[in-house]
Amino acid sequence: MRERLEAVLHEKVTDLLREAGDDAALPTITVEASRQKDHGDFACNAAMVLSGRLRRPPREIAAELIDRLGDAAGLVARAEIAGPGFVNVWLAGGQWHDVLDRILAAGEAYGTSDDGKGRKLQVEFVSANPTGPLSVGHGRQAILGDCVARLLLATGWDVVREYYFNNGGRQMRVLGDSVRARYLEQLGRAAVPPEDALLDSELPWPDAIDGLPVLFPRDGYQGGYIGEIAAALREREGEGWIDEPGDGGFRQEAEKRIFAEIRRTLESLGIHFDVYASENEFYAAGKIEAVLGDLRATGLVYDEGGATWLRASDLGLDRDRVIVKSSGEPTYLLPDIAYHREKFARGFECIIDVQGADHKDQGPYVKAGIQALGHDPARVEFLFHEFVTLSSDGHTVKQSTRKATYITIDELLADVGADVFRYFMIERRAQSHLDFDLDLAKEKDWTKNPAYYLQYTHARTYGIERQAVERGVTMPASADIDASRLELPEELELVKKLGEFPEMVSRAAESREPHHIAYYLREVAGLFNPYYQDKDRHEILTTDAGLTNARLGLTFAVRRVMAQGLALLGMSAPERM
Predict the structure, then answer these.
(1) Residues 217 and 328 in one domain
(2) Where are the alpha helices (DSSP H) in 127-272?
(3) What CATH number should be reported for the domain holding residue 64?
(4) Are residues 496 and 376 in the same domain?
(5) What pLDDT shows up at residue 221?
(6) Which range marks the domain in which residue 549 is found?
(7) pLDDT over 60 at 455, yes or no
(8) What's the mean pLDDT in 330-348?
(9) What CATH number is given to the structural domain containing 523?
(10) Which residues touch 356 (CB under 8 Å, ≥6 apart)?
(11) Which of 32, 109, 115, 322 could be joined to 155 by an S-S link, Cβ 3.0–4.6 Å?
(12) Helices 545-568 and 450-470: crossing angle, nearest 10°?
């Protein structure tokens, strides 16, 4: 409906300019849905945009535009001047009846578009290293990335979901050493510290087994899962791995088992990846060294203090960054640059990296690196999200990753289920801190739990249909629904809200903000549930067959929008609750 009104307003603006002898390009005017009912259906800023070119007051131009809208009676019911020169427009009721017809005719295609035109796009998200179970913070990123991917698919992009993880470097060595220490501990053996422990400043923690020290890395991984991996190895290998180094089989076994659990957790959330990539693959293929050589060739790399630096200050950043440490080991930045160059080589027109707020400092340097290699950094988007805290009974649940006392996604899913978890993780803007209310998430009352509130709204439409069948009402085909029978203001308001769905999806996809879909669905549910519950005024199954068909059509349209919206959030749309 906005697009139809825009077309008419562009025509009127063109006429105004032509009559004034102005044949220059048409200015950009906006037509936005009004936020308040008494301000009409849409508001347009055309008069204020034209004021400078026509050298006339905005309100005077607005009055003339309103006069010219008089010949669009089939579309426009009335228009008024607001504020400094906005034009508020009320559409004719019949236009909204057409919207209902289009929703029912479109079926599952309602809300989709071809905005992306099949262009290739990559969304990389989660990308947690295989050092332990996924935490609540990983969960927010997982849901955010998946919902962004769903929105982009719905708007015509060719989307590839990708998971990249660092399985090289110090933290993986520490992981292997941690498992080895627990393995030896379970065998009652003394652990020998890794040779590089002191070089890495990992002063060992002495425990005791029969008076013998068990040396555990100071920054070692302490979760119970480390002991479980060690126990499985002890059962399989017995004492055969006593002399196995931590950076050998222990590390490989830990990575394999932990990553298998990560994939299982993500699958329980309905998240599947098209591509898994690892840092070691890039080392094995020589791509890290190749990128370093190519960066040197640009003159934007220099050596100082035994380390190798990226001259990022020459690319507009405030300081240079180390890409290879004095030890000869690359920092995270160099593999990241190599990985992003590989993304360009794979033909992605747009690259979206979903990351936690603690990675904000890294993003500009990755862009600087790929710019130095001749790629367009504007094609890389970093979507950052803030952290998550858990609260219960009004108090924050304390968590510590170092002490392995954090709550995992699996634990939360056992308490609240995947649908509730997904909703709570996506209902707020990614750039806002998220307080996950455990008590509310566990609430089973649909009127209190916002996730159930949306699902119950969808299920209610099926309940209405079941009631109709029990009363012998034949479900109407789209051609049998006369939307003009919907005359009450609250019916038209609901149809108007349903009509916003396609534009809402496009805007949420373009801005990478899926929380708008969650807000929108609550608005739809907030209109439909009171409408249904007011039996005296809005009885759906009436003695008037035509009115019953129209209200059933409205019910089916609500079902369609709720189902499509829940799917975009990755939530199920139950028929019964």
Answers:
(1) no
(2) 136-154, 170-186, 224-237, 251-268
(3) 3.30.1360.70
(4) no
(5) 87
(6) 98-111+445-568
(7) yes
(8) 94
(9) 1.10.730.10
(10) 137, 141, 384, 385, 387
(11) 115
(12) 150
Which residues neighbour 480 within 8 Å (Cβ) at sequence distance 6 or greater? Answer: 549
With cut-offs at 50, 70 and 90, classify the pLDDT of residue 437: very high
Q: Are residues 372 and 456 in the same domain?
A: no
In a domain, 338, yes or no: yes
The three-class DSSP label of residue 558 is: helix
Q: CA dist 486 to 95, 480, 494, Å? A: 12, 14, 10
Rounded to the nearest 5°, which phi and psi values hold at 469?
-65, -40
The C-alpha atoms of residue 393 and residue 26 are separated, in whole angstroms, by: 57
CB 89 within 8 A of CB 40: yes
Q: Of the ranges 29-43, 365-379, 512-526, which one carries the lowest mean pLDDT score? A: 29-43
Q: Are 43 and 83 in contact (CB under 8 A)?
A: no
Please, which pLDDT band fits residue 301 given cuts at 50, 70 and 90? very high
Mean of the per-residue pLDDT values of the chain: 90
Q: Are residues 155 and 206 in the same domain?
A: no
The letter for the amino acid at 220 is G
Where residue 377 sits, what CATH number does that domain have? Answer: 3.40.50.620
Amino acid at 292: L
Q: What is the pLDDT of residue 436?
A: 94
Region label for 54, one of left (φ > 0), alpha (ψ between -120 and 50) or beta (otherwise): alpha
Distance from C-alpha of 164 to C-alpha of 129, rounded to nearest angstrom: 8
Q: Is residue 412 part of a domain?
A: no
Give one DSSP letter per residue of 84-95, joined into a string: TTEEEEEE-HHH
451 and 559 housed in the same domain: yes
- At which of 362, 385, 408 does a domain end? 385
Tally the domains of the chain.
4
- Answer whether residue 210 shows pLDDT above 70: no
Residue 76 lies in a domain: yes
Is the pLDDT at 346 greater than 50? The verdict is yes
Using CA atoms, how far apart are residues 348 and 270, in angstroms rounded to an integer?
24
Shared-domain flag, residues 206 and 156: no
The dihedral through the CA atoms of 285, 288, 289, 292 has a sign that is positive
Q: What is each CA distance from 106 to 101, 137, 290, 329, 557, in whole angstroms?
A: 9, 38, 51, 56, 10
Average pLDDT of the segment spanning 37-51: 88
Residue-by-residue DSSP string for 559-574: HHHHHHHHHHTT----
Residues in the chain: 577
Segment 163-207, tens digit of pLDDT: 999 887 788 989 999 999 899 888 887 655 544 443 343 444 445
As a whole number of Å, the end-to-end CA separation of the chain is 34
Q: What share of the chain is helix, strand, coil (3-state, %, to 5)?
A: 55, 15, 35
Residues 11 and 146 in one domain: no
Q: Which residues contact 565 (CB under 8 A, 6 or more apart)?
A: 111, 454, 501, 517, 520, 521, 524
Does residue 419 register a pLDDT over 50? Answer: yes
